[in-house]
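User: Just a sanity check before I run the rest of the batch. Below are the structure tokens for the first item. I only need the designed sequence back.
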């Protein structure tokens, strides 16, 4: 059996305050080495085993002629004040040899010494300034003070959730007639006008408020009104020492006027103030001719008209923000420049002749974005040969069918004598719209 077993309790300190307690149990003679179990009690309640440890120390005493080898053994456990908590704590130690059946030779030692831990007492002077849970019509400094030290010594601090607020136990709650004065909220943007050229469409919006106008730190949210609206969402919060602030990125894909509103909300009273800024995103338009959208100059951009057609061909630059201006349409010697987003060339019986067949008409326009990607859009005039009723009897159409194509030539003559010029063209029957085929035998225009 362990001889002369005993246990001790000591308090460990740091910076003048208790940080933990250590229980040590000792026997002067045991064989084989000893084992320990330490229990703790709070306020005289049931014992609970201490699980962290124990740590053992064994000293071997060599055998002599009359005394066999034996050990001096010690075990210890360390328990932090956080683990112990508030209350009066006592301890019980059991020590026994580490051998099968050793617990039959166990010694139990109840420690006479106890340790009492207590929280500090605190008081606050905040609630007396509140009305129905809010600070209305006044500013206030809420104080939180420790009226007793406690053991170990504690401190008093305001918390919002798990986060401390204020300094030295004080929180300042500010007030003015607008809860948060609108002039105290500042909102700026990296640019008030942006041209949607490629990927250059991001604007940074910064919202901030001086620390002199609100305490503790407020919350920020941003909403967007415009062609692409967005509901309230948080920004990226930061602080530059004198201000609480938050940043928000706006990257629309549609041009127009956008209004970004920043809402600053007091975290204690849940009251807020809004501040807005306007941002213009210029986006380039598209060119349409006769309802068809064209881009760049391409052989596939073809406008088919009948010779002698009387009417208008209009280039219209639609969409985008703002609208295009100073639009010009040019077809050969004919050209027109409009002040707005349209330009029209008028064809008459004399102006629309077969001489214009194959002419490339170009449409140009100017736009505030400066990145108008259709600076010059073109289409090719396809002028069909149309025979007037008076000349039909003296005009010969000849053609032959090859696969799905119709080849024909048109030669005009007046009273049996050829005049002007002759030409020929080939077109696939399947490629001619019904109104185009009909125009070959009538005076109707083809658009």
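Assistant: Here's the designed sequence for the first item:
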């Amino acid at each position: 059996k362990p001889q002369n077993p005993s246990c001790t309790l000591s308090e460990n300190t740091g910076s003048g305050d208790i940080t933990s307690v250590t229980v040590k149990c000792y026997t002067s003679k045991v064989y084989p080495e000893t084992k320990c179990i330490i229990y703790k009690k709070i306020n005289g309640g049931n014992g609970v085993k201490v699980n962290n440890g124990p740590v053992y120390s064994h000293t071997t005493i060599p055998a002599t002629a009359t005394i066999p080898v034996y050990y001096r053994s010690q075990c210890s456990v360390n328990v932090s004040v956080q683990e112990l908590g508030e209350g009066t704590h006592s301890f019980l130690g059991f020590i026994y040899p580490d051998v099968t059946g050793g617990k039959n030779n166990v010694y139990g030692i109840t420690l006479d010494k106890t340790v009492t831990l207590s929280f500090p007492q605190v008081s606050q002077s905040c609630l007396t300034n509140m009305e129905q849970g809010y600070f209305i019509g006044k500013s206030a400094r809420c104080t939180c003070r420790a009226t007793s030290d406690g053991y170990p010594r504690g401190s008093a601090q305001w918390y919002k959730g798990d986060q401390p607020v204020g300094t030295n136990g004080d929180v300042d709650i500010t007030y003015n007639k607008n809860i948060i004065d609108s002039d105290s909220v500042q909102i700026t943007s990296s640019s008030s006008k942006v041209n949607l050229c490629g990927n250059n469409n991001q604007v940074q919006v910064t919202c901030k408020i001086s620390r002199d106008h609100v305490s503790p730190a407020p919350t920020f949210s941003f909403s967007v009104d415009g062609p692409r609206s967005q509901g309230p969402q948080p920004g990226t919060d930061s602080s530059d020492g004198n201000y609480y602030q938050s940043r928000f990125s706006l990257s629309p894909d549609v041009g127009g006027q956008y209004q970004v509103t920043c809402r600053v909300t007091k975290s204690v009273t849940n009251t807020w103030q809004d501040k807005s800024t306007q941002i213009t995103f210029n986006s380039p338009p598209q060119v349409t001719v006769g309802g068809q959208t064209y881009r760049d100059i391409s052989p596939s951009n073809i406008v088919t008209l009948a010779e002698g057609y009387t009417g208008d061909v209009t280039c219209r630059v639609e969409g985008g923000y703002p609208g295009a201006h100073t639009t010009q349409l040019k077809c050969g010697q004919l050209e027109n420049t409009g002040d707005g987003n349209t330009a029209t060339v008028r064809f008459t019986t004399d102006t629309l002749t077969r001489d214009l067949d194959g002419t490339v008409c170009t449409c140009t326009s100017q736009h505030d974005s400066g990145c108008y990607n259709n600076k010059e859009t073109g289409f090719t005039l396809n002028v069909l040969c149309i025979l007037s009723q008076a000349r039909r009897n003296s005009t010969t159409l000849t053609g032959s069918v090859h696969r799905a194509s119709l080849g024909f030539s048109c030669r005009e003559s007046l009273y049996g004598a050829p005049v002007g010029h002759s030409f020929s063209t080939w077109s696939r029957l399947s490629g001619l719209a019904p109104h185009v085929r009909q125009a070959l035998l009538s005076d109707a225009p083809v658009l």
